[in-house]
Write a structure and sequence with these properties.
Largest interface: A-B, 36 and 46 residues
Number of strands of chain B: 15
Radius of gyration of chain A: 21 Å
Strand content of chain A: under 5%
Number of helices of chain B: 16
Low-confidence stretches of chain A: 1-17
Mean pLDDT of chain A: 73
Mean pLDDT of chain B: 93
Oligomer: heterodimer
Number of helices of chain A: 2
């Protein structure tokens, strides 16, 4: 019964197009979603930082 | 009749089979779309040109029913497992997996598994071996293999780093990686201050528990993870793992080469004798048991002979690996093994992962200054040791260390000497049952003797 409930949970939480051959784990999905927002924001800030610092570095080099 | 090898059954996308002592991978029609996308997206070429994946060639497959294609991957020198890797090796394998996932995402694909067993050490480098691990990316879907990555890589690295380097052995018990609940309970409290470990081990473990018990909590909607979110998580994991560096500690055998009974003269003599043995038997494969950092293993590997340097000390193996990476050596593989309890057959029906012995026999086994550890520290009689070694290799190079040698005396210092038979005469007698003595050479300036032995037919 517990197994059935667990399977149902996994099915409910997995996009219907393709099921994984491994059990991805519902909790493992949920934590990714939970931290994804912050992690995504950090990722974007880092990317912008690379672009911005690259721009200034170039400017600095040119000035030299 | 083609049959999959015993370790190849989990993923229905294909299987590995062996024919004429070569390994092939059959791809089933189910995997056609993803396999084609793997190539057409340019991902395969990118990974091959970066040396990140084992390259393959397509071979004819007409005779096989229900098979889309057959590929012949470049053949591996050796197969090794995460519980035999040093910290640095596991770290390399983890970073490789993350790097591949990032590259896959950029080309519209994703890894559907993140098993440490999908990585092998080939020609001195970590390389991904599973061509069928790639699936079409479904935007918004969290990473299917995230849990497996945490269990196979992050948890072992964290407990090795924060608790004890020997805990890679937990992978021997837990074939699908260290359960996060165990890792979380083992790790010291201070690891909760690390955002990466707090999230991906401690909280992750709590979430697993929460969602396995509550059936109502997640009925709301399909979880959605943005691409930036996924990249952020991968970036966080990657920079954390990249930053894990072992402190400069000395190993159990750290000073081994300086602290043995060897003057430089004897050391050079020993090396020359072994080189002579090597040239005499011309081996194609070699194992060095108790290799420490692989100084003598290199007598073989430097000549291009595929060699494994086995040692019990995870730090010595790690240092050996660092040296291999630094020098770009391609024929030496350092692995951790406790010879008193060597890697056994593991997994389903005890047939998924090969024992140490199943990966042999090799042309030559070397056991330098090992016999006193096996026979005195572990009480193994000569006859049992000889019998085991005769199963591992066709030739044996063995260094006999007699009583009176300071290294043996140290072992006997704190215990009763029950080893009446531990002498050269008995050594020759018992080893003589399994081996023929081809050469016997005293090492000048020491009381030790080198033997070249050949297995009896």
């Amino acid at each position: 019964m517990k197994f059935l409930a667990l399977s149902a949970l996994v099915l409910l939480n997995t996009p219907s197009t393709a099921l994984a051959y491994l059990d991805p784990g519902t909790g493992s999905y949920m934590i990714q979603v939970a931290v994804g927002l912050i992690a995504g924001a950090v990722f974007m800030i880092k990317n912008y930082w690379v672009v911005i610092s690259g721009y200034f570095r170039k400017l600095f080099k040119k000035d030299k | 009749m083609i049959e999959a090898i015993n370790s190849s059954f989990r993923d229905p996308s294909g299987f590995i089979f062996k024919q004429n002592s070569e390994y092939f991978r059959a791809i089933t029609p189910k995997a056609q779309e993803n396999f084609d996308l793997f190539h057409s997206s340019g991902l395969y070429d990118e990974l091959v040109s970066g040396g990140l994946i084992l390259p393959h060639q397509e071979v004819p497959s007409e005779k096989l029913s229900d098979v889309y294609k057959v590929i012949r991957p470049e053949q591996l020198q050796w197969v090794s497992y995460p519980y035999e890797w040093s910290f640095g090796m596991l770290k390399r394998a983890a970073l490789l997996t993350l790097d591949i996932q990032v590259r896959a995402l950029k080309r519209g694909m994703s890894l559907k598994d993140a098993s440490a067993y999908n990585v092998q050490f080939h020609k001195g480098k970590a390389v991904f071996i599973d061509t069928l691990s790639f699936e079409k990316l479904e935007p918004g879907k969290p990473w299917v293999a995230y849990k497996q990555f945490a269990q196979h890589f992050l948890a072992p690295l964290a407990v090795m780093y924060h608790n004890d380097l020997r805990l890679n052995q937990l992978m021997r018990v837990h074939i699908d990686g260290i359960p996060l609940e165990i890792a979380s309970s083992m790790l010291p409290a201070k690891t909760k201050l690390s955002p990466t470990l707090m999230i991906h081990i401690h909280l992750h473990s709590k979430y697993q528990k929460k969602y396995s018990e509550s059936a109502t909590a997640t009925k709301k909607k399909t979880p959605h993870l943005s691409m930036n979110g996924m990249m952020g998580i991968l970036g966080q994991l990657s920079s954390y793992i990249q930053g894990l560096k072992l402190p400069e500690v000395e190993t159990e055998w750290g000073d081994y080469y300086n602290f043995t009974n060897y003057k430089d003269e004897s050391f050079q003599a020993k090396k020359r004798i072994i080189e002579g043995y090597r040239d005499r038997i011309n081996p194609k494969t070699a194992w060095d048991l108790g290799a420490n950092r692989g100084l003598f293993s290199r007598i073989f590997s430097d000549k291009g002979i595929p060699t494994i340097a086995w040692d019990i000390d995870p730090i010595a193996v790690d240092k050996n690996f660092n040296q291999i990476e630094k020098a770009g050596e391609t024929s030496l593989l350092p692995l951790v093994v406790d010879l008193t309890n060597p890697s056994n057959s593991l997994g389903w029906a005890n047939q998924e992962r090969m024992s140490l012995e199943e990966r042999g026999p090799v042309d030559v086994v070397m056991a330098l200054a090992l016999i006193h550890h096996i026979s005195i520290s572990n009480n193994v009689p000569f006859s049992k040791f000889a019998e085991y070694l005769s199963r591992l290799g066709n030739y044996l190079i063995l260094e006999f260390v007699p009583k009176g040698d300071s290294q043996v005396d140290i072992l006997l210092q704190t215990r009763e000497d029950i080893f009446n038979q531990y002498d050269q005469k008995n050594f020759e007698k018992f080893f003589g049952e399994y081996f023929e003595i081809l050469s016997k050479d005293d090492i000048v300036g020491s009381s030790r003797t080198l033997y070249l032995l050949k297995k009896k037919a």
